[in-house]
Amino acid sequence: MRRAGSCGSDVQWCFTQVKGTTDLDVSEADIISTVEFNHTGELLATGDKGGRVVIFQREQETKNQPHRQGEYNVYSTFQSHEPEFDYLKSLEIEEKINKIRWLPQQNAAHFLLSTNDKTIKLWKVSERDKRPEGYNLKDEEGRMKDLSTVTVLQVPVLKPMDLMVEVTPRKIFANAHTYHINSISVNSDCETYMSADDLRINLWHLGITDRSFNIVDIKPVDMEELTEVITAAEFHPHHCNLLVYSSSKGTLRLCDMRAAALCDKHAKLFEEPEDPSNRFFFSEITSSVSDVKFSHSGRYMMTRDYLTVKVWDLNMETKPIEIYQIHDYLRSKLCSLYENDCIFDKFECAWNGSDRLLLNSDFTIPFKPGFPEYS
Amino acid sequence: MVGKGVKRKRHADGGLDSCQNLADCPESYSLKRQLVLNTSLNKMQNGRALPELSLRRTVLIANTLRQIQEEIRLESSQLASAMTLDSGCLESGSQRDAPPSRLTTESHPAGFSDGLEDFMSATSDEDHSLSSAINSILRDLDIIVDGSPSPSNPQDNLDMPEAMDTMAEDWDKEEIQPSEPCRPLESVFGSFEIMSSSYLVGVTLDDLFLDIDTSVCDCDVATVGPAPSGRTVPPGVADDLAKTFTSCNSSSSLGANANSRTDLNDLDHIMEILVSS
């Protein structure tokens, strides 16, 4: 989707491209499970249920058609995760990619983190469009030359070649999660990142794979008392000590890592008080937060639950400042949705670059205009 | 349940969809609650059969069940106390506070007055539906827990609060009871752990196989089976496996034929048990 106009709040939306197949009969492995732009928007990474990652690149704007924003074409495809089998529990660990996060670009190469239920991997995406020619000891095919034929020494030169995109695994962060990983988030310090599963959040250093630090643990001593799980987590975009995680009960907890090594006590708890007259059987299920995102300014958070999108001000914990009803017509059909498990679907949300628009995923056409710009 | 991303269709018939808009249905509140209760119990039981296990989903269903169970317990205790006071008051429509946690299947403000009228006018129906709800919960708890003894089904209304209390204890397990402990949720929640293989560290396989006479076992190291991936089995365990089978090879010698045949039968029997468990 792209914006047709850029003037003020008059935003028009239209479809630019459809990638993939529009057939109804799609193989299970091709189902896209996660999507993520990089920070400039030049690259778009998609992960699917088969453990593959496909990266699209926006083509450069040409002088002939300067008004076109540029279409996205396949840049690279690689197999990120393979299915694993846990022999002790006789369970298969899915290769489905749950989340992809790009690292801020620091040199010519791009780095991204991809994760399935159990293992996080750091991938380096680099281009090669030149190759050296004119070696003294090897010929063009790489075979060793007969040294008696070498009479003159030459300096190898770089000659252009067809663009080749290389994707190599740089780090594998494994065996740190007992439960299924649902979120990863790169810290603003560009050195650390966190991974969150249903009950715990771990802090990693991007360069160290053999250990991680547990910073949040909500697992009860007695599992019979388990009533709440972690559903999403994210680092603050500017303050490297702050993180937020959401729960299945619809609460947000802001934690400060400076306070203690284990952030069991939240610095702030964001929870909308429940209206006791408006409770229904599925009020907890529909309040379960499926995604939480900080605004780029760092002052607001957006959460997505089954029926609403809420915008929170970090300075006010008692209630959100904005609530958008996404599909109110479903309120009378919750029983059916509970029976066929649709009520457990998870949706994502995102801010646009200027924090003026909120985007959310849904099974209908999404669009919700945002609130006026805050300075 | 269909995998995510695949287009789903609503069921054309049956189940809760038979009355799509439950606000229009004439059933009483307790029947609606019973429907949700049954659905939740079915989900809990079928949870393990799902290809995609989700701890979040299980926790949410369990919480919904707890909510309903708590409400039933409250109502039954109120009912019991009201009945002990004066059974005639029910028919004359004496005022009683509706339980504060009245739940509906839709998210509009709960119709307390509607629920109360239904409650008042169909008290005998209410009793039967309550006891049937209890019976179904107890039966299903049995299925979940796999054979733990269930409390006897109450026939008398006055026994219901006690049965509800027992059931409440079953759900909120904090003490281990002298009889086989009933911890249905722990086994369900525990199944979501992706366990690392530290389970076998410190246990030598020789200890496990002491009672098997390996002298008649013509083992082949190649038949160990698919090698576990390097991450799940620590090297120590793999070494133990190799040692066990090499020692088995070196000491293989056939004793008397009759003895070896019975021993082989025993070995087969033991292997069957190990494989099937």
Q: What's the quick description here?
A:
The complex is a heterodimer of chains A (375) and B (277). With 375 residues, chain A is mostly beta strands.
Sheet/helix structural class of chain A: mainly beta
Helix segment count of chain B? 10
The oligomerization state is: heterodimer
Q: In terms of structural class, how would the helical and strand content of chain B be classed?
A: mainly alpha
Name the strands of the widest sheet of chain A in spatial order.
Answer: 3-4-5-6
Which residues of chain B form runs of ≥5 with pLDDT under 50? 10-26, 90-102, 104-127, 141-181, 196-201, 219-238, 244-256
Order of helices and strands of chain A: EEEEEEEEEEEEEEEEEEEEHEEEEHEE
The total beta strand count of chain B reads: 0
Provide an overview of this structure.
Chain A is mainly beta and about 375 residues long. Helices cover about 5% and strands about 40% of the residues of chain A. Chain A is built from 2 helices and 26 strands. In chain A, strands 3-4-5-6 form a 4-stranded antiparallel beta sheet, with no helix packed on it. In chain A, a hairpin with a 5-residue loop joins strand 13 and strand 14. The model of chain A is unreliable at about 1-10 and about 365-375 (pLDDT under 50). Chain B has 10 helices and no strands. Chain B is an all-alpha fold and about 280 residues long. The model of chain B is unreliable at about 10-25, about 90-100, about 105-125, about 140-180, about 195-200, about 220-240 and about 245-255 (pLDDT under 50). In chain B, helix 2 packs antiparallel against helix 6 (about 160-170) and helix 5 (about 125-145) packs parallel to helix 6. Classes of the chains: A mainly beta (about 375), B mainly alpha (about 280). Chains A and B meet through strand 7, helix 1 and helix 2 of A and helix 1, helix 2 and helix 7 of B.
